[in-house]
Amino acid sequence: MAAATRRAASSLVSRCLLARPAVPSALRRPDGTRGLLPGVLQRFGTAAAAEEPISPPVQVRHTQLLINGKFVDAASGKTFPTLDPRTGEEIARVAEGDAEDINRAVAAARKAFDEGPWPRMTAYERSRILLRFADLIDKHNDEIAALETWDNGKPYEQAAQIEVPMVARLMRYYAGWVDKIHGLVVPADGPHHVQVLYEPIGVAGQIIPWNFPLLMFAWKVGPALACGNTVVLKTAEQTPLSALYVAKLMHEAGLPDGVLNIVSGFGPTAGAALASHMDVDKVAFTGSTDTGKIIMELSARSNLKPVTLELGGKSPFIIMDDADVDHAVELAHFALFFNQGQCCCAGSRTFVHERVYEEFVEKSKARAERRVVGDPFRKGVEQGPQIDDEQFNKILGYIKSGVESQANLVTGGARLGDKGYYIKPTIFSDVQDGMKIAQEEIFGPVQSILKFNDLNEVIKRANASRYGLAAGVFTNNLNTANTLTRALKAGTVWVNCFDIFDAAIPFGGYKMSGIGREKGVDSLKGYLQTKAVVTPIKDAAWL
C-alpha cells in the first residue's frame, strides 16, 4: 500500500503501510481549485453524522451494463437504485442484469476468446494496454475516488490516497507478468521432446463484493487479463458504479470489445446464472462463506468449473506482554476499525496478555472515543457510514448479542445520529470464546477484547475457529513471533503491522476462509491451464 500522509493521529498506519507513489488527493471545489472540502472536524459524537452531507464532486456517467464493448440496458429493461450510505437516498438507478444478460455477456466473452484478438496478441501488446489503463486510473484518480466514496461510504482520503493508487499499482504489476508466463521443457526417460504449456483458461466469471469494489475489481480482472482470458464480472448490487467507470477507461486504453463485460445485478439471479453457466470456464468469488458454498455447488453441478474463493474471516490479533501498549492499541484499532470494520481480514478477536490487559482496554476506549466519524467527504474523517441498512442492522444485532451474553460494553454500542448508517465505534471487553461476537464475522466497527495468559493457550484459542484468513502478532520477541507465525492456521500473518496488501503478496485463507490465492504469482495459477505436449525425437543428439 502507501505512504501518503493521512492524519497525524494515524501516523502508525502510515508507518505500517507500504510506500505508494504520490497522487492527487484533493477534491475539486466548485471554483475548480483543488483541495479537500472544508469543514469543522468532528470527533466521536452525533454532530459528526448529523451535519449536512457534502455534495459529491462527481457525476454518475455510466449506469448500464457493459457487454461487448457497449453500454446497454438490461434485457428486461429493469433498473434498481444504488444508495448513498450517508443518507439512504438514491444516487442513481442502475441496469438490473439477470440470466439473459449473463447469457449475452458470456456469449460476447466466448466470441472474444475463441475468435478475437486478445489471446492472439503478443504478450507485449497486452501488457501495453494494461499499462495504459493504469495511467488512465492515475489521471482520473480524484473522480474515481469520489465515486467510490459516494457509493460505498468509505473516507475519501482512504479511497484517493490508498485504494485508487493501489488499483493502478496492481494493474502495472500484472502488466509486468504478461510476457513472463513461461512454459517448460522437461526431460523424459526416452527419446521424447516434452513441453509444458500454460494456456489461458478461457472465459472467467468473476463476482466481487461491496467493501472494496475497485480493489476487488483489480484483484480479479488483473490476473485474468494478464493470462489472456476474457471476463464477465458481476458487481455487488450495493456498489455498481466504480467498476462501470473504470471499465470504460480500460476500453479507452485499447482493450478489444468483448474481453471485459460488466453486469450489475443481484446474487440469486445474475450471480447464480454466472456461476452455473455451462460456457464459463472458471469462477472467482469474494464474499461470505455461506455464499461461497453456493457458488462452489453451482459451479460443480454445471460443468465442474474450477473456483477461487476468498471468503470470511474472524482474524485473531495477539498482543504479548512485552508489547509497547500505546503502539499496540493504535495498531489493533486500525486492524479492526479500518474501512468501518468492513474487512474480511479485520483483527476482530483481539487477544491481550493478562499483564497488560487492563491498560490496553482503557487506552483502546480512549482511542475509540477519539475516532473521527462523519461525512466521508470531509477532511480528517476516519470512519464513514456502514454500507446499507441490512449491514447496519446486522451489526446492531451483534452488539445486542454481546450485551446479552454479558460481555462488558466499554464504549459505543449504538447508532450515531439519526440519518444514514453510522455506528459508534464499539468495544467489548471480558469477551469469552463461546460468545457469538467472538465466533461470527460481524463486519462492522465492533472490537472484541479477550484475555489470555499463556502462549500455548492463545495459539489453541486463536485456531479454534472455522476461519483462517489472517492473523496479527504484536511482540518484540523474535522467538515468540516465529512460534506464532508457524502455529497460526491462517493464510496471512502480519507481525507488528496489519493490512499490508502489496501487489506481490498472495492473499487467501485456510479452512472455510476460501480456496486459492489472490494477488502475487499465485493468483495467475487460477487463470491458466497446464498442457503437456510430447513429441518423439529420432536420432537425438542429446536427451
UniProtKB/TrEMBL annotation:
**Domain of life where this protein originates:** Eukaryota
The name this protein goes by in its record:
Uncharacterized protein
